[in-house]
Amino acid sequence: FHVRYQIKDSDQTITIATTRPETILGDTAICVHPEDERYTNLIGKTVLVPLVNREIPIIADDYVDREFGTGALKVTPAHDVNDYNLGIKYNLPVVDVIASDGTMSAAAQLYIGRDRFDVRKQIIKDIEAAGQLDKIEEIKNNVGYSERTDAVIEPRLSMQWFVKMEVLAKPALDVVNEGKVKLHPAKFINTYKYWMENVKDWCISRQLWWGQRIPAWYDNTGDVVVAANLEGALTEFAAKGKTVSTAEIRQDEDVVDTWFSSWLWPITVFDADAVIKNPADFNADLKYYYPTKDLVTAPEILFFWVARMIMAGMEYCGDIPFSNVYLTGIVRDKQGRKMSKSLGNSPDPIELIEKFGADGVRLGMLLTSPAGNDLPFDESMCEQGRNFSNKIWNAFRLVKGWTVEDKPASDAARVATSWFGSHL
Questions:
Q1: Angle between helices 358-367 and 349-356 (to 10 degrees)
Q2: Which of 85, 103, 162, 166 is 20 to 30 A removed from 242 (C-alpha atoms)?
Q3: What's the pLDDT tens digit per position in 108-122?
């Protein structure tokens, strides 16, 4: 939808293109490329948001692609990740026009309580009636859908818990650079370094029914403390000079990201408490087993799990959790697709074993297992594995059937044996 925004105190307009016109009500700026000659004279002026006539500035940033769409970008920080980052960069206000149930919020000023998809149709009619619709184009657009519910996925703002990662990432990067933690194959070191040098703060809260709840507690005024349990929360509030009853406080409903639990695995598996940097405070198991030696895992979780375990180990135990990380590829089908239940492309190992034998399947997997790379599984490799295993088995049966005579070896046998020995 190509929509014209009126320049304040002018007959001039600037046109933007959007696939989500219902978010126009949450616009807080129009952004253009600073070297786009079409718009340089407009930078710094203000426009009026269609229908609600709220004033918003025209800003310039080289993030905008001059060749895409009209070259002018509507900035809606509450409903687009990139727009949110622009909003932070230019200190733009945030107008959250879509509520958590998918209806238009009070901040939208119009269509309050109506489903956003219904509003998408209605707002275009109203913009057209106002004379601000330039044209409508049919395009192919990438839209994310939930794998489980098939609902359209759209970004929206919400309050979350974050972990500041920069201070945690540096020690974990240093131990890999120094070779204290070795990655095998070594080609993954560059990937690891890129992630750790460009680390972002980690959103650890999740809105799920099941999981380990965030250990944050709120009183009736919204004040918050962090504690392991209810009794600890009461103590923390008391330390802040507040006397509250158990009925007056509640625990945060969110749960932690599963990787936030998993990054403590090398420590908590030994029933160890967190923040135990002094080895003298380690329990018996942790003293004996930590750090471990080798970790075998997949490259796709090198950052999600491996790097975070190293961070947690350095932060809470003052030492690396393991010294070697062996990164194996994941099994894919012969079309290169990751195996999954939904695709139905994952073979039944029992059926493969019944068809080709256990040794044939093992060898077939080995034949397609380059170090650190994905394994493109093809049933024909199991067939090759079976055929090779049969050759070895038949050769063994042949040798096993031979008999040894108790008499001096012939000259030919001695020469042959000597020749074999010299080539071992």
A1: 110
A2: 162
A3: 999 999 999 999 999
With tokens 């009794």, the residue in question is: 231
DSSP 3-state of 218: strand
By the 8 A CB rule, do 85 and 95 touch? no
- Kind and range of the H or E run holding 217: strand 216-218
Torsion sign, CA atoms 267, 273, 275, 280: negative
Name the percent of the chain lying above pLDDT 70. 98
Residue 29 backbone dihedrals phi, psi, to 5 degrees = -170, 160
Selection from 132, 164, 113, 157 nearest residue 21 by Cα: 132
pLDDT tens-digit profile of 77-89? 999 989 999 999 9
Average pLDDT per block of 10 residues along the chain, 424 residues long: 94 94 96 93 95 96 90 94 93 94 94 96 96 93 87 87 95 96 94 94 93 94 93 94 92 95 90 69 87 92 96 92 91 84 86 94 84 80 93 94 83 87 82
pLDDT of residue 274: 56
Residue with tokens 């992630």: 195
pLDDT at 42: 93
Tell me which amino acid residue 320 is: I
- Chain center to CA of 302: 11
Among residues 141, 139, 169, 192, the alpha carbon closest in space to that of 325 is found at 192
How many residues does the structure list for the chain?
Answer: 424
Distance from C-alpha of 30 to C-alpha of 74, rounded to nearest angstrom = 5
Across 148-163, b (16+ Cβ under 10 Å) vs e yields eeeeeeeeeeeeebeb
Cα(84)–Cα(23) distance, integer angstroms: 13
Phi, psi for 332 (deg, rounded to 5): -120, 160
Token pair for 66: 């001059």
The two tokens of residue 40 are 């340089």
Q: Nearest to residue 156, comparing CAs of 220, 225, 108, 215?
A: 108
Half-sphere exposure of 114 (CA within 13 A, CB side): 13
